[in-house]
Amino acid sequence: MESFKSFEYKFQYRIAGHSGESHSMEFVKEGRYPHNEKETFKVLRQMYIHSQFCLSGDNTLNAAAHAIKDITKEEADDYFVVVLSDANISQYHINPEDIAKGIKRLCYIITVQY
How far, in Å, CA of 105 to CA of 114, rounded? Predict the structure, then answer.
């Protein structure tokens, strides 16, 4: 959020989280960015609270797929999806290679559609 301050005219962004309960929990909506420290802290507090009280489980792959599909709905010069997860993926029998294959396959499908 700090990196995009004063660049809202040039870049659009959205911040969504994922947990065992959901593959997409919206924290910052496109065009509705925090404008001061109080609003930024409110977003961070929502993230923290959700992480403390959500059910265990992992939606990393679903979250990545949803984010990639969602970001490409509108035409743009470039698209970036950054996926961060603290999930113990081995606990859910997910290999890092599975994540890479899933994301590459999804990117290929979206590219072919355009």
Answer: 15
- Higher pLDDT residue, 37 or 87? 37
Is 38 part of any domain? yes
Which position has the token pair 């929990």?
A: 25
* Residue 37 domain boundaries: 15-113
Report yes or no on 72 lying in a domain.
Answer: yes
The model's pLDDT over 19-58, given as tens digits with 9 standing for 90+, comes to 777 778 899 998 899 989 999 999 999 999 888 877 777 7
Here the tokens at position 4 are 């995009």
Any domain includes 7:
no
Q: Assess if residue 90 is contained within a domain.
A: yes
Tell me how many domains the chain contains: 1
Structure tokens belonging to residue 14: 């959205």
Q: Would you call 80 exposed, middle or buried from its count of C-beta atoms within 10 A (0-12, 13-18, 19+)?
A: exposed
In degrees, rounded to 5, the angle at the alpha carbon of residue 83 between the alpha carbons of residues 5 and 97 is 155
What does the DSSP 8-state code read for residue 86? -
